[in-house]
Amino acid sequence: MSKESSRHGDTTANTYIDPGADTKEGYAISKKSRTLAREMVGNNTVEDRVKQRCSVAVGDFSMADLMRFNKNPVKAALDALRNRAPIITDIRMVQVGIQKKGHQSEVLCALDYGSGIAREREITRSSAGFLALQEKLPGSIVVIGNAPSALLSLCGMIRNGVRPAVIIGAPVGFVNAAESKEILRTIDIPSISTEGTRGGTPVAVASINECIAIFIEGSSDAGSGHRL
User: Fold this and answer.
1) Which of 20, 23, 150, 159 is buried most, with the most CB atoms less than 10 Å from its CB?
2) What CATH superfamily is the domain 10-222?
């Protein structure tokens, strides 16, 4: 458990909003999965909420033990959502998976930007996209689920003064994935990350979507969506 775990009132109770459950069957599945996750992971803090959702997303409760929370990232994400900060993703799959209801943050994908930078510097498109989006990064929510190169580029930009509000860094793989997340955890920015080579789009999307669910619970939109 993170030393900076934080309680968030009723958001860890047994009743909360699931904005993604739009049908009776979807609601029933979500309710059953979350009930089991609460029992297996714990349900005392907002970090537990994120761990629950990530474990369900990958079908493996051991994922909860790999989650790392630095500098109260859930609160940082909630504040950024309240400020309508942009959410910037590394790949399309992450962008598509993020819940669009219940908040007013624009969801951008780095792949839509920086193609010229990628050709000129011969770097990955996701890295180039973050470089091209430098002016949008301050105060933003960054969600990286696939590209270690993008996370490494972002960490370099932060060392040069760029300040996102919070970073969800969960790139997966055997080349620079673990190393990029280790670097992220040394940086003075709130972050959610995973230990080692595991992670990926499901973890990154689940992390931000749980933050969005918590945000909706505390907003005037809490009447929309199913309660579990």
Assistant:
1) 150
2) Cobalamin biosynthesis CobH/CbiC, precorrin-8X methylmutase (3.40.50.10230)
